[in-house]
Amino acid sequence: MSAVPGPSPFYLGIDLGGTNIKSGVVDDDGHVLSFLSLETEAELGPEAGLDHLAEAGRRAVAASGVSWDQIAGVGLGSPGTMDLGAGMLLEPPNLPGWDNLPIRQLLSDRLKKATVLQNDGNAAAYGEYWTGAGKGAHSLVMFTLGTGIGCGIVLDGLILEGRHSHGAECGHIIVQMENARRCSCGAYGHLEAYASATALVKRALEALAEDPAPSRLRQLDPETITSRAIAEAAAAGDELAGRLMRDTAHYLAVGAVSLMHTIDPDLVLFGGGMINAGQSLLDAIRQDVRRMAFPIPAARTRIEFASLGEEAGFVGAAGWARKVLSRTP
Amino acid sequence: MSAVPGPSPFYLGIDLGGTNIKSGVVDDDGHVLSFLSLETEAELGPEAGLDHLAEAGRRAVAASGVSWDQIAGVGLGSPGTMDLGAGMLLEPPNLPGWDNLPIRQLLSDRLKKATVLQNDGNAAAYGEYWTGAGKGAHSLVMFTLGTGIGCGIVLDGLILEGRHSHGAECGHIIVQMENARRCSCGAYGHLEAYASATALVKRALEALAEDPAPSRLRQLDPETITSRAIAEAAAAGDELAGRLMRDTAHYLAVGAVSLMHTIDPDLVLFGGGMINAGQSLLDAIRQDVRRMAFPIPAARTRIEFASLGEEAGFVGAAGWARKVLSRTP
Questions:
Q1: Nearest CA to CA, how far is B235 from chain A (Å)?
Q2: pTM of the entire structure?
Q3: Other residues' Cβ atoms within 10 Å of the Cβ of residue B200
Q4: What CATH number is given for A133-307 in this structure?
Q5: Which residue of chain A comes nearest to B170, CA vs CA?
Q6: Is the peptide bond before B301 cis (omega within 30 degrees of 0)?
Q7: Residue B1: its pLDDT value, please?
Q8: How remote is the C-alpha of B220 from its chain's centroid?
Q9: What value of ipTM does the predicted structure carry?
Q10: Domain at B137-306: CATH code
Q11: B303, β-bridge pairs
Q12: Are A264 and B169 within 8 A, CB to CB?
């Protein structure tokens, strides 16, 4: 994929995940000039991983129609834990063995470009803020719904990184204290333990075991039930699946309301694979937010789906490089 | 009360509450030169209330040893709801009848001084940040524990006001979804419904009715049980009261952890009357935060009691006037 390059300078964004590396080049207006995905092969360790990152970056530039010299900087989004100030990965659960890795400097050395590091959830939020569904907002909170729940907060153009690089870990706010579900992080009652795709599937399996109601989900091998299959069954009128999706919307609204009563942003965005469930999910989230939030934020805060899809991460990483390296407002 | 005036300019701070108006003068370093309290008599309506505010301000200046001309500006802290940008009270539940009141301008007209308006919870947090337990912190979250739970967030020297003046309403984050307690605001499962002084008393009355355990609280007329009486009974070794205080600490830790996983501040402060319960309450909060938060913020985020007591509100309002009017960093 390539497009006519727009205004220079250009930035390379790389979105490092446990499974895939997504990379691309954007122009100074945030238009995507190239986008590709490689396997991370995280299990090969950080040396091979850094080679993959550099390779993903070089290929994205080659595909963009922009010369290497025109790339003004590189933004890398990565799962945590990390020390953003030091540009280090600390103990990332999704990248086992990549501990205490000065990844920003190591990637910069390989690519010979100024490089910035950002948390992946923050980068996605910044991407939407810069060129996606958050364009024009002063402040936004974004939840990325997948295996877990990523989050990012942008306030007046700045990412809320936090003092220990743990800002906007809002999948891990506590929404239930008693008889609470266990989160993938090991703690109890976190939003992610209720509303992630993984949690949805777990709740579906429980419901199928406990609830005698008929459901087309029973025709599936339990091992193969996905959040997508549940959303499709709900869309086709399956009552049990519909209840599961409605509960998911409620949990997401609970997260949105708690963030509205803390950050009070212009906009709350939901992104990630689960938003493929479509308008009915968004409508249900909105309905519960309106019911549960204070009247003024309930009436004024926009609740929307993200628009950049899987490009949000690298676009946001590139945008953050642009912000930090060029000091562009 | 008066002290030798320190560096000029001087600022007048006024903390408007449903019951009392607290006012005082501070110097440019935040030292308190005067402090007094008047009754609000909110039920007399906003005209009388504005007269009381102006009177409280004039008396505080007279008591300070600083001449009226040396007052560079006025900061007013008030309970919401409000529109900070417009300087308006909207529909403040604690000031019935003071609706849609351009209070900033009206007070400025009466005092003939530049005036800024701030939310009371935000002002208290800013006071602690400027001259109290938060001095030197980059960012803090403060919970003020009283009849309700007020909150304020300071990030790199700026108050997180939110886009609709609803930032830091963290007493109203949702901590329980199922079988949740009803909050004073009418919604369910809010932190305030579990951890405020009012909620503590309610839980005590429930426990006394349901739990046959002996307790010195049974010697009190149920109508007269206060959070202070419960804290004192706990300190004296009363088991049931101790459990109630331990639960309170847990709920407060839940609030702290959710804010640490959202804002990730240097410091979480607890202020308000309930901190008179003392070190055992703080120790219990800390213990649960360490257990429930992610390892890095758990190890590095300081959890402390506020230090300015009932002066935090007017000191913070004055400090915010100084910040906004003088553009002092």
A1: 26
A2: 0.96
A3: 26
A4: 3.30.420.40
A5: A262
A6: no
A7: 46
A8: 29
A9: 0.96
A10: 3.30.420.40
A11: B268
A12: yes
